[in-house]
Amino acid sequence: MAGTIKDKLKAFELTPFLVLGLALIILVVFIAYPLSKVVFNSFIELGDAPTLGNLTLANFSQFSTSNLYRSAFFNTMTVGLFCVLFSCLLGIPMAYFVAKTETPLKTFFLTLGTLPLILPPFVGAYSWILLFGRQGVINYFLEAAVGIKLPDIYGAPGVIIAITMSTYPFIFLLTYGALISADPFIEESAEIMGASRWRVIRTVTLPLVIPAIMAGALIVFMRSVGNFGVPAILGGNFYVLPTLIYFQVTGFFNLNAAGAIAMVNVVLVAFAILLSQWITARRSYVTITSTTQAARISSSKLLKWVGTIFCLGVIFFSLLPHITVILTSFTEGWAGTRYPNKFSLQNYRRIFEIALTPIRNSLFLATTATLIAAVIGTLLSYINVRRNLRARWILDLTVMLPFILPGIVVGVAILIGFSSGLLILSGTWMILVVGFFIRRMPYIFRSTTASLSQIDVAVEEASSITGASWLTTFRKITLPLMAPGILAGAVISFATLMGELSTTVILYSARWKTISVAIVEYLFSATIGPAYALGTILIVLVLSSITLANRILGRRMSQMFKMV
Amino acid sequence: MRENQNGRITLSIRNLSKIFRGRQDQVQALDDLSLDIREGELFTFLGPSGCGKTTTLRCIAGFEKPTSGAIDFLGRDFTSIPPFRRNIGMVFQSYALFPHLSIFENVAYGLRIRKLSRREIEERVNRIIALVGLEATQKRKPSELSGGQQQRIALARALVYDPQLLLLDEPLSNLDAKLRVFMREEIRRIQQQAKVTTIYVTHDQEEALSISDRIAVMHAGKVSQVGSPDEIYENPVSIRVADFIGQANFLACSARGDGDPVLTFRSNEEITVKNSSGNIRSFRDREGILFVRPEQMEITADPDHPNSLRGEVKVILYLGSVVRYYVEIFQNDSPQEILVDQDRRVRGVGVGDPVAVIVHGQEAKLFPTEQKQQLDQE
After folding, report:
1. Do the strands B42-46 and B198-202 form a parallel or antiparallel pair, or are they unpaired?
2. Given CB atoms, is A1 within the 8 Å cutoff of chain B?
3. In Å, how far is A18's CA from the nearest CA of chain B?
4. Which of A43, A91, A294, B177 is least enclosed by beta carbons within 10 angstroms?
5. A458 vs B96: CB contact, 8 Å cut-off?
6. Domains in chain B, start-ordered, CATH in brackets?
7. Nearest 5°: phi and psi at A188?
8. Separation in Å, CA of B179 to nearest CA in chain A
9. ipTM for the complex?
10. How would you write A4-15 as a 3-class SS string?
């Protein structure tokens, strides 16, 4: 019945198992190991040896004794909840207007509505001060014209506004996607039974998109409680957990205390995930889309114009900081005057004298990390989709963890993991690449998983039965078919890594400053001109890489974000 | 017409079992299956979905590992050889053409892997594409082809490297009715020209009857009957096979008589059948189930016709080549509907009319009552 051992060996294909092993080692070394070390170290006091006997809650007790810690915790909650609320207030109506009314400029809204996701929010954060700060230009004109003085932008309001303007697209795009893919016949059947338009929206349309809104709200919450750059620039004395972590790392080099704060930050995120799962599990709807017919559109003229003005307003307001960055970068000394009065390239001349290295560093680090993430992420998604692993959820969770965790927490984990022990990388470019790579691999993992799930297994079986080994099949069939997914994920990784701040700020060293670190340093030393020139260069680099990928893939920008 | 009745055995399946284990449950897809397939024949696995026909095919291809048992191909044990070393050609239900490659490259794929020279690849691809009649499509992508064309390219891709075995997994199920009939004739023609041993999987009994040299009718992971299409249709071994293949009427009756047997039905009507087979005799003085095909019966408007069952016409369906009458006959108290096929409409018979159904019992067969009860319970 069974063949000889030699036959068995011949039947056994080694390559897929080698790949599986390699991928798993990378997961363990670069994700599981540093993350578990953070957890462990957060229970050890600074200076104590990391042994079981030294376990203590001392690092966490700060949350009950220190006012700073307590307020940082509540501030983080406040930021998270208000950002979710305001993102919904902007994103849901905008999605409805673009998907369901005769609003013109739909592609324009979708494309510009995606931009805030790619543009690093901290770059524009300072613009809010220029515009609405105590000396801000808009504030000044408002006071001169109608005598209104706006409240101070520093602290909570500024942080919440600036983050919301960079997170509302998650709600907008996800809700829009759900609205246009919903079966129009469901709404029609409600209408034929006698429901009015508002009743249809309230009882059919909205409930059907609630899972999408929930998914968007969760991402918004995760992003806003993990944001470091905006509160660092606009917060002033308004501390949140990520800025507190930074404070511990750079101020005291107390990684254990930072780890403990990071844990609390993660608990917030985990709580949000559980809450959203609990809500969606209780109201999940399975709709069978039996038709490819487009969503039904309201023909109301009123909605059309209200919608257009609303969308234009949101888009203008959300891109205003970045427009300000670009304009300011071509002026001399605006920050000191009411409004720009002299245009020149002076800022760019200074950048080319002093800041070429950060640009080179960012390009090198982002490219390297993206390439590694593309290779490993693709292999892992192959294993995830095609190999029938029992422990698939562990693989999925491990890969996705760095996506869920705040960037600064990942930074702390990598720093703790690789500043002592067997593999010491701190101070080198490699530690940045590791941090970048594990944070962006989920993007590639998601997008390649999506494109792989679309490939009929029979296509690979056809190749195999025709005589191709696993490796040949992977190389000649699977990989080319996954290519669009890999490229889409890689471009988003690269574009967002170019301006990555929250992980970088923990891991960079004097020799390896990135564009984002340089911008923040300039902003802190109030040299706005060069900061904004560098910011403009960053914006141009990010937008051109995305545009190029869109050309190659023939997709719209908003479509590329479907899986993220 | 049917060749290779005594051809050499190429593929031998011995005691094949396959159990799929889920988290909580397990499914026995194949249950101790044994079969021999002869050189050059077109052998069909026929059965309803879930009967194990596709699992058998995937075990032969190597995509599934049998839980136990062996697949022997020309003396080699297949189970220890990975799919890509088995030298098999396969056509998938979804065709599974490589969407990113041109038609030429799709067909050439197996040849490139076998590292043939550029000239030979071109020659052989051209020859096989001509055989399936699609010379003009070489530069196109699969998505630019119609379903029937994709089907033929899939066949060409599977045959171009002269596989020792061709596997076809429900290849026609995605085509419309007319194309299905055309393509099954094409497949038969191409298979005969290529002289390749072929295993065909389908749930469509008409397709199986028309295309196969031999058919294995499967049920619940087991083979119910193996035989030529004629044998399967005319001489099914069980009510299950008789019921699955074609249309059939099943009537409870008992047999007696020494010469031509006399069948007594529950309505106490009696008919004498000219049938000398031992099958009916073995049911002497016992109740059995009479199996008779619709075309082995006839309708007459004369209610007193001898050797007939009385009934009433309920529905008349015009099917083109035949006219199908649904006649309600009385079996004791309970009425039963039977199907009678006539070449043309019977004069003077309409819906609601009383008729007599004549049974031409030369090929009629009796089955044990338990088989019918079991089938009815499922």
Report:
1. parallel
2. yes
3. 17
4. B177
5. yes
6. 9-241 (3.40.50.300), 248-377 (2.40.50.140)
7. -65, -40
8. 23
9. 0.84
10. CHHHHHHHCCCH
